[in-house]
Amino acid sequence: MSDCPIILEDLLRWGIKSEAIASLELTESDMEQPWDEVLSYLRAAPNITLPLTADQVTLTLKQKACVLMTWNIMSVKGFDPTANAQDAVLRMRYEDAITWFEKVAAGKIQPIPPAEVEEDPVDDGTVTGSDSGGVVTSEASRGWRDALL
Questions:
Q1: 3-state DSSP call for residue 133?
Q2: Average of per-residue pLDDT across 110-126
């Protein structure tokens, strides 16, 4: 199994209310299968390299993953999205998340922040400042400094 970065607190924050799963003995390992589903979309994305680092697991990615996890939990628990408005909302959120992940897999959405690349400075002979601060260029002195001394 993969290392799932989603913890129960994330699920309760972005996915499901604790009252809805109070009767379940849900553990963090129960979230591994939905996370594997998330990874299947990420693997298909042309611009994402796995495994993800902790910095790459954004809040949006966590929230969307929690929606999938909620759907899986509620599907096992049993609910009827055709007869209950709250259950219908869960279904809409799930369908929206699947659409989002499909766009990620197609490369239309980039959920992972690009890696920061340190660029080599170009030495074109211009003076840009020093490590202690910047360089200020102004018109001719107004004499204020002399007035302060």
A1: strand
A2: 67
Q: To 10 degrees, what angle do helices 59-77 and 85-105 make?
A: 130
C-alpha distances out from residue 121 to 13, 66, 118, 130, 134, Å:
43, 42, 9, 14, 16
Candidates 129, 144, 10; CA nearest to 64 is: 10
Highest mean pLDDT of the ranges 16-25, 33-42, 113-122? 33-42
Contact assessment for residue 31 and residue 66, using Cβ atoms and an 8 Å cutoff = no
Check: CB of residue 26 under 8 Å from CB of residue 88. Answer: no
The answer to whether residues 29 and 3 touch, using CB atoms and an 8 Å cutoff, is: no
The dihedral sign for the CA sequence 86, 73, 96, 62:
positive
The number of helix segments (H) and strand segments (E) in the chain equals 5, 0
* Coil, strand or helix at 130: strand
